[in-house]
Every structure is written in C-alpha cells, then in structure tokens.
Design brief:
By secondary structure, the chain is of the alpha/beta class. It has a domain at 1-61 and 99-128 and 196-267 and 357-422: FAD/NAD(P)-binding domain (3-Layer(bba) Sandwich). Helix content is 29%, strand content 25%. The protein has eleven helices and 21 strands. It has helices spanning 14-25, 63-72, 85-97, 101-115, 118-128, 154-163, 172-178, 201-214, 258-262, 326-338, 383-398; strands spanning 6-10, 29-34, 49-50, 78-80, 135-136, 140-144, 168-171, 188-192, 196-198, 218-221, 224-229, 235-239, 244-247, 249-252, 272-281, 292-294, 299-304, 307-316, 348-356, 363-367, 370-377. The strands form four sheets. Strands 4, 6, 7, 8, 15, 16, 17, 18 and 19 form a nine-stranded mixed β-sheet that branches. A hairpin with a 4-residue loop joins β12 (235-239) and β13 (244-247). The longest helix is centred in the C-terminal third of the chain and has 16 residues, at 383-398. The protein is globular, with a radius of gyration of 21 Å. It starts with 5 loop residues before the first strand and ends in a 30-residue tail after the last helix. Mean pLDDT is 95; it is low at 418-423.
Length: 428
Amino acid sequence: MSFPKEVLVAGGGIVGINCAIELQRCGCSVTLVDPRAPGDGCSFGNAGNVVAGAVVPFSMPGNLLKIPTWVLSPYGPLSISLRHLPRLAPWLMRWLKASHPANVRRISKAMHALHRETFDLYLPLLRELGEGDLIKKAGQLYVSRHPHGADGNALSGVLRADAGIRVEALSGGQIKDLVPALSNTYRSGIFFPDNGFCANPHRLVQVLASAFVARGGIIQRNALVAVERDPQGGGTAILESGTRHRYDGLVIAAGVWSSQLAAMFGARVPLEAERGYHVTLPQSGILLNLPVTNCDLHISATSMEMGLRITGGAEFAGLKAKPSWKFADRILDLGAMTFPGLQCSGAKKWVGMRPSIPDGLPVLDRAAGDRKVIFAFGNGHYGLTEAPMMARLVKALMMDEQPSIDISPYSVSRFSSVASAPASAPSR
C-alpha cells in the first residue's frame, strides 16, 4: 500500500471537512483549501435535515408531467432561467432518464448505502468534541392536506419497504398532537423516527474545522486553479495566490466548482448549480421538536439555534446569475400557510448553490490514471447526510483499502468520458 503523507483537500464544506478529518485520523498531513471560510458555501444555509431513511430519489416516474405545473404555478417549487435552458437541457434529459423505474430502484439502493449509518458516524465524533446536541435523532414529519398526499406514490412506499425504512402513518389528529403549530387542514402524515436534524449546519462545519486545526490540520483561504501531475505519483497544486503545494493525495470536494476541477483530470461530469433559498426567522413564535416537510407546498421547516428556518425550491440559472429573491418571499408566504401563527419579522434571506447531478447520486471515484486523486462531490440535497460516509469511503480509496459498501453506483464513468486533461480550471 502506498501511504499518502501529504494530502490536499479542495473544498471546505461539510463533505470536505469530514474528508479532511478522516484522512488526518489515518496519520496523513492534511491541508484544506477553499476561498471561503469553512462552511460559508452551501453548508451555511441548508435545511438541516439528517435523513438516514431517505431512499426516494427526486427523479421519479411521472415527473415529466409535473414540470409545467412546478414551473408555472405562482408558488411552484421549480424555476428555470430561459437563458440557461439550452445549457441545462442535456442535464434535464439525464434527470428524466433517471426516473425510469429500473433506474429508480438502483439509485434508491445506492442512496440507502450512503445514508443509513449517518447518525452512527456523526454522533461519536460530536460527543467526543462536546457537541453531541448539534445533531439530534428526533424524527421527521411529512404532511399533506390530501388523504394520501404525504405517502408519495406507490413506488415510494415500495422503495422504503425494500430498504427497511421505518415509517408511521398519522391521521390529522395525530399530526396536530405531534406538531400543534400546524394548521388543522392536514389529513395525512408520515413520521420517520430514524431521521433527524442539525441544530446549526454552519456551526457544525466550524466545530469540525476547529477540531481539524487543533489536531494539526491546515486550512488556507485559497482556491485550487491548476495541477502539475508527477508521472511518479502525486503532483503540485497551484493555488489562486500563486502558491505551489506538493501533494501525494488530492481530494476534490469543492461543491459546485468540483466539475471544473475534475476536468483537470479529464473527467466530464454533468453537474449543475441548483440554487436553493431559505428564510430564517429569529422570532417566529414557532418551536418545532422535529423537521416538518409540507409535501403540498414543497417546503421544509426546522427549528435551529438561530430560529425557525424554512427552505424550499430549486432554481436553475447557472453559476453567475443574480439571486431571485422573490423565491425567498414565496417561502415566507408558504410558511405562513403552513403555520398560521408564524411571525415573519426580522426574516433573514439566503441563497446557496447545491452541487446537483442528474441521477441524484454523488461522484465518489478515483481520477483516471491517478489512484490518489479522489472525486467526492455532487451530493445535491444530501451533503449533510452523506458527508461522514463519503469521508470513510474517500479514506478507503486513498489508503487502498476495501470500501465498506459497493461504490460502483457513484463511479465517474457512469456518465463521463475521459479526454485530455486541461492544465487549469476555468476561472471562478
């Protein structure tokens, strides 16, 4: 086994920092680079859901017929920029292909493999750091005004049953007993006892980053822009500041920028920046003991250290488009429809970019021709849930160990042809 002494991790989000800690535990000298402070990207404002029981892909049979309603409805959950549509079209075609029932079952199994151990991996580390309350296995509730609206379609139930996911069907009265703040109009609910939430996703990354540095890790506010590969192994990373950093191993976990970095190693990955919005209400008047997802209005609400956070929607407009703050305003309206007593004063709005891949599965693989360059990105809505298992698998690949699960579903070769690697990444 070739032991990498110097490892560079590109990306300071929840996946990158978990990878850095896991490799540090193995005795590697690890440097993490990101132009932002740890957790200041997509990890800052996510919904906080930690979903060990999430096995239903976003791309499901019948979604093609729903797209017009999603886009055209005043409160629809989907927005696609017409200017960006020509570039997005191939991605959408792959997304629709993923909705074939055979593909859905395959994707579901791969999701379960990444999700099922998330609490078992997070909680021991956080307790060791004195932060055991940051992640809580409190359950999760889906609600709908329709008699079976919270269940999803029949295939959703089959996927959950096949994976052994525990679910409890709730009536309107039971929903109200569990979450008194909800309106009286919800007729069906699904409770997931093995899910939970993070009380502060941004602080979680900061806590892990502080532990990483305290144990000798290095964090640099810098961006990876080019690499010089050494035929004998490893290479030299060239950072935006002009600094050159020699590495024996490299991990690409840079969120929406990852496909550009992977292209330096000849990989073509259909990754899109899927923008999501949130509003955080410091004085909402609502306290939830568990995350609540409104299946009719496509929003999720979680009580956090900062107040009530409500998230929703997906916007495809490219990396550089200006935020559409009307999306955040819609979320406020939908939140008030869900919780009649909601107080919206002092609302803080935010937008972030999820690194989304059409089939909903991340890329976890070695770069072609370089066993010590590991791709670990594209986790979309599930970065918080998948990060600790991703880190374990990255460590296994880097140390030439046998991964604990089958990682073939996450292979870059499932959609990527390999071309001559460019000398540098495109400018941010």
